């Protein structure tokens, strides 16, 4: 992977871009009929000193669309922001996604204080890509309080994490003189929502990075409802094709219905025990796409499905294979010749350290970039907002969730630094 100094490569373009992209004050954005100014927000009874800064950063991030492949602009904004905050910044180019070959350069952003060292105590990381479609930033009118709701794509997954991580590190460094700024390094990656190519590129580059880069712990920002995750389920993604034989629907005995086989097989898989564990619960199964046949009066010769399982059993590297074997056995039971199972990728459940005083534990069912960061480190997974609204058309977060995250990230970073 190619790393480049951000100031040398990106900065001239960035200056021009950001000049045209200056964010509006909060008072002018999404306040229906409100004339409250940001300084009034800061003076609100429950407001921490960093509220305005936090909301301004999140607004800029959320207002910049960044679905997979389109992360150039938000990456450039982040580079500029971190440099203005006094960080040294490098960028790491990541090749365009296969289905978007002609996008502008996209890159991971790495930021630190002082000279770049080889060994860090903790890596603080999240992702800057979001799922489509873009949903503009909208903040509830009236005086801003902890209950104020902010809507927009990425508010929860995961620009809320990105903004609160940056604010937390800044806050910690400015208020705690015992923290060595050179113990912390920040990483914001592209591509988490699709193939994880951003984090995979970073992980691959660790081998030949100069100077080398190691870290004792990594704090991943994803929506965990402000709780500390003890781990997340694994995943398995497959396609299944059923091959039958076509015939007139009046004479089913002359054909072999691929749809019928597929329905019976999927039904069996839904009813099967695909494995469970005390920490992660049951493995769950989803037929996300189902298609087959050509017309109502034809016995269908071909059916296919795309399926995903959320894996609760087995080891990190191999848990998905346990589930794949169970699915394969069921397909064979239904018909030992008709099915082809093609599993493209997967991994087992990943545990994280949730044994930190002052945090409520949670286990989550979604995937993260943790499996893509292949190195020896202690993992933490924490972020503001709920996965239940992420990826939906009503994605939102509250000001209180964000501010709790700024406080909690500081606690978590301090804890990780002192291990
Ligand atoms: Zn995410």
Automatic annotation (TrEMBL):
InterPro entries: ArgE/DapE_CS, Bact_exopeptidase_dim_dom, Peptidase_M20, Peptidase_M20_dimer, Peptidase_M20A. Gene3D superfamilies: 3.30.70.360, Zn peptidases. Its cofactor is Zn(2+). Residues 1-20 form the signal peptide. GO terms for molecular function: hydrolase activity; metal ion binding. Pfam families: M20_dimer, Peptidase_M20. Residues 231-334 form the Peptidase M20 dimerisation domain. Keywords: Hydrolase, Metal-binding, Signal, Zinc. The keyword Zinc applies. CDD domains: M20_ArgE_DapE-like_fungal. Belongs to the peptidase M20A family. This is Peptidase M20 dimerisation domain-containing protein.
């Amino acid at each position: 992977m190619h790393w480049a100094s951000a100031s040398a490569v990106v900065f001239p373009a960035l200056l021009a871009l950001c000049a045209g992209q200056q964010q509006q004050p909060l008072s002018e954005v999404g306040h229906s009929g409100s004339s409250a100014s940001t300084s009034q927000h800061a003076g609100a009874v429950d407001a921490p000193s960093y509220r305005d800064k936090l909301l301004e950063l999140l607004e800029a991030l959320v207002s910049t669309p960044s679905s997979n492949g389109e992360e150039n602009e938000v990456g450039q904004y982040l580079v500029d922001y971190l440099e203005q905050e006094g960080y040294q910044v490098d960028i790491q180019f990541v090749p365009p996604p296969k289905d978007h070959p002609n996008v502008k350069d996209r890159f991971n952003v790495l930021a630190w204080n002082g000279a770049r060292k080889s060994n860090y105590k903790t890596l603080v990381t999240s992702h800057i890509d979001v799922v489509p479609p873009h949903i503009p930033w909208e903040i509830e009118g009236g005086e801003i309080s902890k209950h104020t709701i902010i809507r927009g794509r990425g508010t929860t997954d995961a620009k809320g994490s990105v903004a609160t991580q940056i604010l937390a590190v800044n806050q910690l460094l400015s208020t705690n003189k015992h923290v060595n700024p050179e113990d912390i390094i920040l990483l914001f990656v592209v591509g988490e929502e699709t193939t994880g190519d951003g984090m995979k590129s970073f992980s691959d580059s660790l081998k030949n990075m100069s100077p080398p880069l190691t870290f004792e712990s990594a704090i991943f920002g994803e929506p965990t409802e402000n709780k500390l995750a003890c781990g997340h389920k694994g995943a398995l993604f497959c396609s299944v094709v059923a091959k039958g034989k076509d015939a007139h629907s009046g004479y089913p005995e002359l054909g072999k219905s691929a749809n019928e086989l597929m329905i019976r097989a999927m039904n069996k898989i839904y009813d099967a025990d695909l494995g469970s564990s005390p920490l992660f619960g049951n493995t769950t199964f989803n037929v996300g796409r189902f298609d087959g046949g050509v017309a109502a009066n034809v016995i269908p010769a071909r059916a296919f499905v795309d399926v995903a399982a959320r894996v609760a059993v087995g080891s990190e590297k191999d848990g998905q294979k346990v589930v794949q074997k169970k699915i394969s056995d069921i397909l064979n039971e239904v018909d030992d010749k008709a099915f082809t199972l093609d599993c493209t990728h997967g991994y087992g459940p990943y545990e994280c350290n949730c044994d930190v005083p002052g945090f409520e534990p949670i286990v989550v069912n979604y995937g993260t970039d943790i499996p893509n960061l292949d190195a020896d480190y202690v993992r933490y997974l924490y972020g503001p907002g709920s996965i239940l609204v992420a990826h939906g058309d009503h994605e939102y977060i509250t000001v209180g969730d964000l501010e709790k995250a700024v406080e909690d990230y500081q606690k978590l970073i301090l804890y990780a630094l002192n291990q």
